[in-house]
Design a protein that fits this description.
alpha+beta; about 65% helix; exocytosis; 2 strands
Length: about 70
């Protein structure tokens, strides 16, 4: 029972640190959001653009997982 409680507490701390770090990093990422034109897709002679934010967010998550040290 004690080990289970310890495991839950460690998981809570880990998730708390991850969320805190990701919140700060996401705010920084969204300030510098880039849009990439997609020339192949056009509608009424107006090219679409896509945000590079999902790729940056993926890299941020990987980095966050590496940085959390229990």
């Amino acid at each position: 029972k004690f080990l289970f409680a310890l495991h839950l507490e460690l998981a809570r701390i880990y998730i708390s640190r991850l969320c805190s770090w990701m919140r700060a990093a996401t705010e920084e990422l969204s300030k510098n959001e880039l849009w990439e034109p997609v020339s192949m897709l056009e509608r009424n002679k107006s090219p679409y653009t896509i945000s590079l934010l999902p790729l940056a967010f993926q890299a941020m998550v990987v980095s966050a997982m590496d940085q959390i040290d229990l």
